TrEMBL record:
It comes from Chloropsis hardwickii. It comes from the Eukaryota. Pfam families: Tim17. GO terms for cellular component: peroxisomal membrane. This is PXMP4 protein.
Length: 213
């Protein structure tokens, strides 16, 4: 046992020395980016998939657990691959031009988004919609900072909240098919299932009765 510890320590010292080499920093950052993307994707998706699956999906426990695992794996894999692609393209452009410029980030992310998130599936759709809302907020704030639009005299958030909720409920009531399935499920639970009950059990305890009464 003691004889194997020496080579292991030597290997760890060599790995640590390699990680400190500046010439390999860009390549190592790509590898760690892949690692961080995989971990972060799993941390974000697993709790979300757990809640949504047990709240809205039917099926056996094994089927639910399989669905959670598949969703977590897909999110983790896609985010890891995107970070790997983005940082790799960023490093390649910087090396070719000898410096880093803002357009490099935009181009690398566009190509990564096309390659990794271009498939229109539920996981990618949720990620893109999440980012879209943040992008719109960010661009609005940037436009104010740059002076393209004037600084609002009052906080516009209350008006935004009113318009968002008014629009989404109008879509749910009259054009439901345009909304994402998970949002449809949430809205159905909140605004339609709350109008149906038979006795105290499915009024306060359960959302829906499971017997044939």
């Amino acid at each position: 046992m003691a004889g194997g510890a020496g080579p292991l320590r030597a290997l760890l010292r060599a790995a640590n020395a390699l990680l400190l080499q500046r010439r390999y920093r860009a390549a190592l950052a790509v590898i760690k980016g892949f690692r961080n993307g995989a971990v972060y994707g799993a941390k974000i998706r697993a709790p979300h998939a757990l809640v949504m699956t047990f709240l809205f999906k039917s099926g056996s426990l094994r089927e639910k657990l399989r669905s959670i695992a598949q969703a977590t794996y897909a999110h983790s894999r896609n985010l890891a691959c995107f970070v790997f692609t983005y940082k790799g393209l960023l490093a390649a452009q910087s090396r070719l031009q000898g410096k880093k410029i803002p357009f490099h980030s935009f181009l690398a992310a566009c190509l990564g988004g096309w390659l990794v998130f271009g498939d229109n599936n539920p996981i990618n759709s949720q990620i893109i919609m999440y980012l879209l809302s943040r992008v719109l907020f960010g661009l609005s704030r940037l436009a104010v900072q740059k002076g393209y639009i004037p600084q609002p005299r009052q906080d516009p958030f209350p008006l935004l909240a009113a318009l968002v909720w008014g629009t989404v409920l109008w879509l749910f009531e009259y054009h439901r098919e345009t909304l994402q399935p998970s949002l449809q499920s949430s809205m159905t639970y909140l605004y339609e299932d709350s109008e149906v009950w038979h006795d105290l059990s499915d009024f306060l305890v359960y959302n829906k009765r499971t017997d044939n009464k």
